[in-house]
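Input record (one chain):
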Amino acid sequence: MTVPTSGHTATTATTTATAAGAAPHAWLSARLSLYLRRAPETIDPTVPLAEYGMDSVAALSLCGDLEDEFGLEVEPTLLWDHPTVESLVRHLSAVLTATEPSAGDQR
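The corresponding structure, as predicted from the sequence alone:
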């Protein structure tokens, strides 16, 4: 995953990344509930999303949502590399934390 270098997108990504770092699980659960057509609280974070019926079309759509929401460039294999909510949240949190500028980097 890479972060786009355009100034506007990076600013948006940084702002969103800070918010997402606090609650990526809530955003992801809400988004997955739409694709899986089930209440967010019924999605066990340790169960592979494929067991809930997540298919390749929904996975690619979720990748697009992640790109739009967080300003990240997401590989289409993301959900296969991180097949559970738990794994995906852990990965996204790490990536979003890595994209936040340090205090010395702000201009």
